[in-house]
UniProtKB/TrEMBL annotation:
Enzyme class (EC, first level): hydrolase
UniProt lineage: Bacteria, Bacillati, Bacillota, Bacilli, Bacillales
Organism whose genome encodes this protein: Lentibacillus populi
SUPFAM superfamilies linked to this entry: HD-domain/PDEase-like
Protein name listed in UniProt: bis(5'-nucleosyl)-tetraphosphatase (symmetrical)
Assigned keywords, A-Z: Hydrolase, Iron, Metal-binding, Nucleotide-binding
Record PROSITE patterns: HD
Length: 187
């Protein structure tokens, strides 16, 4: 499949708004891939499919988590988290995408995890800083993303944890693991 075929393949699975978000994430991910010397093709492919499962029913996602090798503890956390790991499984099954790096970047684009590779960081960051977003603290992250992948990713996780804690939400452990791991690496 080429880029236009990927875009055509994801479109029927998304709302118009989510599709536009996806195109912005893909453009942002390609810029970051150029900047930080990662395969632009993999970054674009992962970004195009990163929210593939966003509109699956809670029942379908729950069943897939239970019947796959995904950790069942996902079910104890907010269902907003499920579309990322579930999406990685569904794009493999339904779109025959088998690149494990691409699937990893889709899987961890929401929570992050310890020891992320550059592609995983790029998709997580692109999702957060794409031009349609506005979060408190986002300008600082966009600036850091000009030249420091680790720091911008760390800021993304820090902001997300602060936001979730502010609401009193439960936070998936991988998000803390990602944050702690990057804390060791930033200057
Ligand atoms: O799918 P998108 O809206 O483009 O972006 P996302 O996949 O990053 O969104 C998931 C939302 O999930 C995000 O706004 C925060 C929320 N969330 C709920 N629990 C957690 C969480 N995010 C993280 N990182 N960790 C959590 O435990
Ligand atoms: Fe998402
Ligand atoms: Fe995100
Ligand atoms: Fe997204």
């Amino acid at each position: 499949m080429n880029r236009n075929e990927w875009i055509a393949a994801v479109k029927p699975h998304l709302t118009e708004q989510r599709f536009e978000h996806t195109l912005r994430v893909a453009r942002t991910a390609v810029q970051l891939a150029k900047r930080f010397h990662v395969s632009e093709e993999k970054a674009e492919l992962a970004a195009i499919f990163h929210d593939y499962a966003k509109f699956r029913s809670l029942d379908e996602m729950r069943q897939l988590i239970l019947s796959s090798s995904l950790p069942n503890d996902l079910l104890l956390y907010h269902h907003e988290l499920w579309h990322a790991p579930v999406g990685a499984i569904l794009v493999r099954q339904e779109q025959a995408i088998h690149d494990t790096q691409v699937l990893g970047a889709i899987h961890y684009h929401t929570t992050g995890k310890a020891h992320m590779n550059k592609l995983e960081m790029i998709v997580l960051l692109a999702d957060y800083i794409e031009p349609g977003r506005s979060f408190p603290g986002l300008e600082e992250v966009r600036e850091a993303a000009q030249d420091d992948l680790i720091r911008s990713c760390w800021l993304t996780l820090r902001n997300t944890i602060q936001f979730l804690m502010g609401k009193g939400s439960r936070i998936y452990p991988d998000t803390f693991h990602a944050y702690n791991d990057l804390t060791k690496q930033i200057n």
